[in-house]
Amino acid sequence: MRTALLSVAASTACLVGCGAGPHTRAAGAVTPLTVRAVPWNPSQAQVGRVSAVADAGGIVAVFGDSGATVLGSGAVVAVDRSVTDWASASTIAGADGSARWIVGIDRHGHLHYLRGSSAFEDVSARYGLDGRAFRGASMLDASRVAFLVDGGLAIADGSRVARYDALPPLLDIAGGGGRGAAIGAGLLVAFDPTLSTTRSYAIPGISAAAVGSDGRIYASTRRALYAAKPDGELALVYDAEGETLHGLAASGAHVWFADGSELGVVEQDHVAETSGAHVPPDARLSPSSTGDVWVLSGGKLDRYARAEAEPALATTWTTTLAPIFARVCSACHQPNGSSGTDLSTAEAWESERGAIRERVVLSRTMPPQGHPLSDADREAIRAWAGER
Q: What is the per-residue DSSP string for 27-95?
């Protein structure tokens, strides 16, 4: 279905120099941020040179030059080598009514989705776009997805696909809170499919856009970070005072950016940034469904979370229990695994705390033969299980 977004409005963002002084680190506009590395691949599985990543719940799909590797709670559950030239990946609303699809786009513009956590299926033809190549995908809300395709934009709502062709050439797309944003050369286009409106902003040097879970639009150049005000105008929230910004991603309630070797978050008009994160200065950021941020550089992949935002149980899971699960337990205790007991999440371990303590720490009847558990790992489980 072809249509056109209506009520187009244009404006120019207040660029650096429009009262930029108060928005600098030197002026005290930036507060400290503490992050921690999240061990996403505790078994050190070989995933090749990584080009993209997407996750949904406990499932992570890593796309690289050796194929797509699927991990569940840190353990490899599948490797699909049918495609090795991946360009991008994202998590979107499922076209079959499921809550989430993990999808990847290859360099030929084909869209693939992860079926049953086991293999990727080409679903390019499913959206009726006359063979147009896919260049990006982003979830707008629980039922709508925006696709960047050759020659325009397409929005799918589960029952129909609307095409918008009367737009300038676009390079990337982001979505959230029912709204979307796309960038072109020196241009940001924000769109609201519910109201059938767009708004264009002239931003010379724009390099990235993001949309928060509340529908707020964010944009960045190599020097400046902007956020939309209630009236829709973009306002400067951070001036890096140099060409050091190189990433922007909305993850859950957090909007992350990279500034040189540091990571930062922007919340409404407040900016916080790390000191000593040692992020590669050419890193790309990718969102996570958990609120974490993925950092890709040189074919390598890292994951970070806000340290102060992590509850004690989740911290223990990611730093201590998930690596043990991946090494020792994952063969039998994945969802629908042979054991009949799913231990792939922190909540599952908590619900089975008594049984784990009895069988792993006291009677030592688990794990079974063939799945050795080191004394150090058993002691770590004992310390976690404790006395309730």
A: TT-EEE--EEE--S-TT-----SEEEEEEETTEEEEEETTEEEEEETTEEEEEE-S---EEEEEEE--T
Each residue of 118-128: pLDDT tens digit?
899 999 999 98
Domain 2-308 fold: Methylamine Dehydrogenase; Chain H (2.130.10)
φ, ψ of residue 168 to 5 degrees: the values are -70, 165
**Within its chain, how far is the Cα of 370 from the centroid?**
36
Residue 22 CA to residue 126 CA, distance in Å, equals 50
Instruction: Return the domain boundaries, the chain.
Output: 2-308, 312-385
Reported as a pLDDT band with limits 50, 70 and 90, residue 13 is low
Residue closest to 176 by CA, chosen among 255, 292, 112: 255
Residue partners of 194: CB distance under 8 A and separation at least 6: 178
**Length of the chain as a residue count:** 388
Whole-prediction pTM: 0.80
The structure tokens listed for 141 are 């809300």
